[in-house]
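Methods: example folding runs. The two proteins below were folded one after another, and each record is reproduced exactly as written to the output file, sequence line first and structure-token line second.
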Amino acid sequence: MALVMVAALFMALLFVIFKIFDRRSVPLFPAIVINYFTAASCGIIASVPLPSDRLVPLVLPAVLLGGLFIILFYVTAISTQRIGVAVTSVATKMSLVVTVLFAVVFFHEEPGTWGWTGIGLALTGVVLASWSPGPVGTRGMWMLPIALFLGNSAVDVVLITVQRLVLVPATEPVFITMVLGIAGSIGLLLLIIRGQFASLRDPKAAIAGVLLGLFNYASLHFIIGAIARSGFAASSLFPMMNIGVIIFGTIASIAIFKERIRNVQWAGIVCGVLAMAMILLA
């Protein structure tokens, strides 16, 4: 349980950091690229060198995840700007529906009555806790949250599959490093193609990117660790992590940013706490 909560905490901190970026006018994409190389550097320090034959099975899933990571950052940024944070966050967190169904169908997990009830409450909690009035004029933008939903679902499914079928404790740090390094390389290539390489020298982007990279590496490290060693089935693990993100994010919003929480969002948080209790009972 501790691993699940730590993973949720670090994921929530990423949202906090992005909110600070917005308030400090940090150049987003250059900071994201620096973040990936910082996180990959953390992985290199934490990893133990492995023979090349043990790395070969990791290459394809690492390239796939690295590409998904950088694409999702693009889609998340565009979706947030055009249709708002609320719809974007719901689309991101609702990916757990696909994750749970995938774990049940392909890995034959059975959450049981309490588990299914908890998962249903978790879905309700995610929607309610993320709900806020959306901006006018969002018609025609429905493809953005759908793309975000599918992309995050793909990330979760690949992570579960790789951890269950390919990774062992010795290869986990190396795999994380490969994913982050590939994502950073793709982002760097995009900056070069767009003629924005000089933006990496922006002091705000550099400092913010390093900070984000440290937390990004920690979040991915604990997510992989939670999947491998928490003792929870994936069909229960991901709903709990998503609810944990909402709870920690809510605390941070109130304590740091003095945001007001609507009644419907409080209802979602209560659903989330009840969901965690039911999943634990399962």
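Second run, written to the same file directly after the first:
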Amino acid sequence: KSQYACDGARAGTLGDSACGLRHILDKCQIDEEAQELILKHYKPVPRVKEGCYLAEMGANAMMDISDGIGSDLRHILKSSGVGAEIDLNAIPLSEQLQRKCSQFGWDPLDLAISGGEDYELLFTITPQQEEKLQIPHKVIGKITSGNSLIWKGGEKDYLGFRHF
């Protein structure tokens, strides 16, 4: 059955926490915008209420994005025995992230997909269920048969954070 891989139950963006951490590690000058990104790293907001709602709505699989969507999506795919096609142009990026990446020459998609610590929700749900959702969300791709993960719109294979 066809499913959507949806990200961000509150249409949250990805990569802000990683960008904040990058500012810290690279000892960049901290302006007000950078401070907001750093705060997102130090004080993430878990989406508990949204997760409960999505479970009630029949989400097939769901997890928070703590190790980057490149890693966490693979956990869902492996556990479910399926593949996915993800549209890189659909990955939600904040304007702050894009400005800072432009300023420092960083890749915003790399931070968004591999950075982690965003704690937004990644979930799969059927198209029929998705139409009924009463919370903002962003469809970023679709679940496929097989076991491959395809990043449409790019040539890089984003892996996400690896603990070991």
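Comment on the second run: The mean pLDDT is 89.
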